Amino acid sequence: MVTLTGSTLTIEQMKEILLNNSYVKASEESMERVKACREKVEKIVDEEQVVYGITTGFGKFSDVFISKENVSKLQHNLIVSHACGVGELFPEKVSRAMLVLRTNTMLKGFSGVRPIVVEKLISLVNAQIHPAIPQQGSLGASGDLAPLSHLALVLLGEGEVFYKGEVVKTEEALAKEGISPISLEAKEGLALINGTQAMTAMGVLAYIEGEELAYQSELISSITFESLQGIIDVFDERLHTARGFKEQIDVAERYRNILSDSKLITKQGEIRVQDAYTLRCIPQVHGASWQVLTYVKEKLEIEMNAATDNPLIFDDAVISGGNFHGQPIAFAMDFFKLGVAELANISERRIERLVNPQLNDLPPFLSPEPGLQSGAMIMQYAAASLVSENKTLAHPASVDSIPSSANQEDHVSMGTIGARHAYQILQNSRRVLAIELICALQAVEYRGVEGMGSITRKFYEDARNIVPSIKQDRIFSTDIERVTSYLKGLSNTKNTFHQKTIYGG
C-alpha cells in the first residue's frame, strides 16, 4: 500500500504501483486539505465572485461570466468538448500512472475539488480500471488537456477503460466493481484536466524502463567485452576518479565487479595497447547517459508532487498562473531521448565490432559456415536502422510551439510529444541491445564460455534459455523479438537478476 500525501511520491513508489499493482490511499492530513480548499470554492460560487475557471469560461472565454446555476454544466461541457485525443492508446501502465499523479496533485489542497473526486480516482486505481487514453492531441500547455479529459470521462461513466486485459465501455467496468459515476461541480473539471500528468506519467514509465535498460546495457556489453578480449585497465578506479564524474566512476566500478573473475579479459599490452572507443570509453559514454537519467529522475519527482492546475486556491487568494506549462518536463524528456539513444548508438558500434572480420579474429558475421550462411550479418543492418530512426526521434519536441485558443495560449511546450518519442526511442534501443546480446552470446561461444566471469556466465545461461546458439541460419527476427521481450520483462519486475546479483537490489 502506497500512501499519497501530495508531496512525497517517489519513483520507487511508482514502481510499486505500476509494476506490482500496489494499492494506494490518501493520507488523512491531505484529505483535510482537500476539504478545506473545497470550502473556499463553494464560497466563491455562492457569492458569485468572478474567478477564472470557477465562474468564468476557459481560455479565450475567460471573460465570460458563468452563473451559479450553470457551473456544473460548465464543467461537464469542458470535459466532453476537450476529449478529442487521437491515435493509439497510451500503454495501460501510463494510464494507471496518470490516475495516481492526478490524485496526488489534488491532495496538495490547492485544486478545490470535493473529497469524493479524490476517492473515486483512488477507487479506479485500486480496482485496476484504467482509462483508455489516446496518445496524440496534447500541446503540453494548458497542460495535457485532451488526454486528461479522456481520464475525466471515466468519472462521469463515459468513454472506455482497460479492465481485466480488455478495453471495454466505462459503464460496464464500473458496474462490475460497484463504483458509481459522479457529476462534476464547480472547478472540478478544470482541476482534472489542467496539468502535466500525461507527459509526466509517460516520462515515469520511460524512466523506470530506461533505468533497467541502462543496467542491462552494462551486463550485455560486458559479454561483448569478454568476446573481444577487452583491456580491463580502462575500468581502473584511479582513471575515473581523476576525471570526477560520479556516474562514470560508478559505471567503472560495476564493470570491475561484473568482470572481476573473467579469464577472457586482457591487460594493457598483452594483445593490444588500446581498444577502440566503443570498449575503451564505455564508462565515459554510459556514465554520461546515467547523468541524463539522474537529471530526468530529479525533474520527474518534482513534477510528480507539483500543483499543476490553474487557478490555485490558497488560504487568502485564488491565483491564476501557468504551472500547467510542461516546459520543465519537455526539456527533461528531450534530454532523456539523447541519453537512451546514445546507449543504442554505442551498442550498434559494438555489434559491428563483433560481426566485422576486419575488426576481430572471430568468424565473419559470427557465421557457422561463412559464405554459405550469413549469420548475424543482417542483424547489424537492423540495429543500424533502429539507431538511425532514433536520431530523427531525438529531435527536440520542446523547440516547437504553435499558438492556440485564439492566441491566448501563445506558447506551448509540446512536452507530451517529447515523452512519447522518448518511450519510442527506448523501445528501439532495447531492440538494439537485444541484437548485441544475441551477437555477444554467439561470439563468446567462439571465444570459450568456460573462461567467462561468474556473473556474465550466469547471464549467458539465462539468456540461452531464450535464444539458442546459431548453428544454422534461421529467421532472426523471431530471436530479436524474444530477447527484446525478455529484457522488457526484466524491466517490469521489481527485483531483476541484474539488481539482485550485481547491484544489491
TrEMBL record:
<comment type="pathway">
    <text>Amino-acid degradation; L-histidine degradation into L-glutamate; N-formimidoyl-L-glutamate from L-histidine: step 1/3.</text>
</comment>
<feature type="cross-link" description="5-imidazolinone (Ala-Gly)">
    <location>
        <begin position="141"/>
        <end position="143"/>
    </location>
</feature>
<keyword id="KW-0456">Lyase</keyword>
<feature type="modified residue" description="2,3-didehydroalanine (Ser)">
    <location>
        <position position="142"/>
    </location>
</feature>
<protein>
    <recommendedName>
        <fullName>Histidine ammonia-lyase</fullName>
        <ecNumber>4.3.1.3</ecNumber>
    </recommendedName>
</protein>
<dbReference type="GO" id="GO:0004397">
    <property type="term" value="F:histidine ammonia-lyase activity"/>
</dbReference>
<comment type="similarity">
    <text>Belongs to the PAL/histidase family.</text>
</comment>
<keyword id="KW-0963">Cytoplasm</keyword>
<dbReference type="InterPro" id="IPR022313">
    <property type="entry name" value="Phe/His_NH3-lyase_AS"/>
</dbReference>
<dbReference type="GO" id="GO:0005737">
    <property type="term" value="C:cytoplasm"/>
</dbReference>
<dbReference type="Pfam" id="PF00221">
    <property type="entry name" value="Lyase_aromatic"/>
</dbReference>
<dbReference type="InterPro" id="IPR024083">
    <property type="entry name" value="Fumarase/histidase_N"/>
</dbReference>
<dbReference type="InterPro" id="IPR005921">
    <property type="entry name" value="HutH"/>
</dbReference>
<dbReference type="InterPro" id="IPR001106">
    <property type="entry name" value="Aromatic_Lyase"/>
</dbReference>
<keyword id="KW-0369">Histidine metabolism</keyword>
<dbReference type="InterPro" id="IPR008948">
    <property type="entry name" value="L-Aspartase-like"/>
</dbReference>
<dbReference type="GO" id="GO:0006548">
    <property type="term" value="P:L-histidine catabolic process"/>
</dbReference>
